[in-house]
Predict the structure.
Amino acid sequence: MEAKANNANGHAVLDVVEKTTRLSDAKLLYYKEKILERIDKEKRQIKFSTAKGNDTNDTSPTFKVLEEGQETQSKELNGKLLQRQTNFIQHLEYALIRIGNKTYGKCDCPKCQGRLIDEERLKSVLHTTKCCEAKNEEVHKSLKR
Ligand SMILES: [Zn+2]
């Protein structure tokens, strides 16, 4: 009983120490699993939508003159969505690399200089490299342009 409590304490202390510089291994693993899950989900969605896209490509357009306009529109939309999903996956993969070198979860804005991003934010935006504040500034900048 006592040994167990000591172990738990030891773990907790380690967690606190590491928190100041990086996320603990347990947490990195937790996020890694979440990210892998997300990549898997996105990839399955892409497969689904590209399978649909190929279907319309194979169909001879001569029989579908009336639907053509509509089809082009939805194809464009699909293309944009696909682009966004591919970008998203790319960012998630970068996040996996950061998990690998244990820099995941750190904010790279000049203000924070590697301080850890709020975990509530990390959980909602798994691939983020910036704290909320820095992200807001970025949005302001792009709006001004
Ligand atoms: Zn920051």
